[in-house]
Design a protein that fits this description.
The protein is about 45% helix and about 15% strand. It has helices at about 15-35, 55-70, 90-100, 110-120, 135-150, 165-175, 195-205, 215-220, 240-250, 255-260, 280-290, 300, 310-325, and strands spanning about 45-50, 70-75, 100-105, 125-130, 155-160, 180-185, 210-215, 225-230, 265-270. The radius of gyration is 19 Å and the shape is globular. It starts with 15 loop residues before the first helix and ends with a helix.
Length: about 325
């Protein structure tokens, strides 16, 4: 499987076999990391990490992965470059492409990362856009496979706001890899109909199904994986909290939801999570709305069924695999 020179912008661009190859490679580099076997064949190479949105897991995963591979990395934070301000995306891409062997972008519209990829001349990796989060998908699929030994035929239920990067990306990943995908939320928060139809096409090939439902009991019945994310994305205005809390609270992941799923079901969340009031925003919302949690209860988050920290660690191994697969070795 040769992915050298390829961009990694959305899993829509990859075949099920290519995605499986990346998951396999992730498992392999994870094993090597645990055994202390180096994979530092990339000395002399450098990567640029553009972050228009702040990050914990994505930034740390890229920086540690690059270091493990023997590469240098330059972090360009929200105020760290002139891209889109004094310099066009096209020009920034051409400049960075002359200096770096690969470019990661985390920020806003998918059109930005597509534009970078068009002009950079080196592999560009999507660390998160409003529409897609493909590196997270590899981490999720690796975590699921570690728990069940397989992916095909499992039922994954996504609860909450399924209109953006996480709902979109999970639907793409599941439909390509043969997992049954359920978006369990109110109609207003269903994924985009055009993408649903595209994914139904993938599902027809893989044997998967796609279900959109407002019924929590029916939607989560016999689920293998219950997945959720924060209700308000980074960069959205504070005013939307009240609306989301009101409309999405029926889709909170509780012990009753987990009990309705299979006994062997696991809980996943791409983090950060509002499962208690130990954060500035969590405390503020708790005081404003009289709540102790939001998208998931602390009871579920801290339960043995919760695999969120395995999932967070797997970000690093899967990002390393993406860079290894798309970069030439030194």
């Amino acid at each position: 499987m040769n992915l050298k020179g390829r961009n990694f912008l959305t899993l829509k661009d990859f075949t099920p076999e290519e995605i499986t190859y990346l998951i396999d490679l992730s498992a392999e580099v994870k094993e090597k990391k645990k055994k202390g076997i180096p994979v530092d064949h990339y000395k002399g190479k450098n990567v640029a990490l553009i972050f228009e949105k702040d990050s914990t897991r994505t930034r740390c995963a890229f920086e540690v992965a690059a270091h493990d591979m023997g590469m240098g990395s330059t972090y360009l934070g929200p105020t760290g470059s002139q891209m889109g301000k004094k310099e066009s995306i096209e020009d920034t891409a051409r400049v960075l492409g002359r200096m770096y062997d690969g470019i990661e972008y985390r920020g806003f519209g998918q059109d930005i990362v597509e534009e970078l990829a068009k002009h950079a001349g080196v592999p560009v990796w999507n660390g998160l856009t409003n529409e897609y989060h493909p590196t997270q998908m590899l981490a999720d699929m690796l975590t699921i496979r570690e728990n069940f030994g397989t992916l095909k035929g499992l039922k994954l239920v996504y609860m909450g706001d399924a209109r953006y990067n996480m709902g979109n990306s999970l639907m793409v990943a599941c439909s390509k890899l043969g997992l049954d995908f359920v978006a369990c939320t109110t109609k207003e928060y269903f994924p985009n109909e055009e993408l649903v139809e595209t994914c139904r096409g993938y599902a027809a090939q893989s044997g998967a199904t796609i279900t959109l439902t407002e019924d929590v009991k029916e939607g989560t019945k016999d689920a293998d994986i219950i997945y959720t994310d924060v209700w308000v994305s980074m960069g959205e205005p504070d005013e939307v909290w009240e609306k989301r809390i009101k409309e999405l609270s029926p889709y909170k992941v509780t012990k009753e939801v987990m009990a309705n799923a299979k006994e062997t079901a696991i809980f996943l969340h791409c983090l950060p999570a509002f499962h208690d009031l130990k954060t500035k925003i969590g405390k503020e919302m708790g005081e404003r709305f009289g709540i102790t949690d939001m998208e998931v209860t602390d009871e579920v988050f801290e339960s043995p069924q919760s695999k969120v920290f395995d999932e967070a660690e797997n970000r690093m191994h899967t990002i390393k695999a993406v860079m290894m697969a798309t970069l030439e070795e030194s």
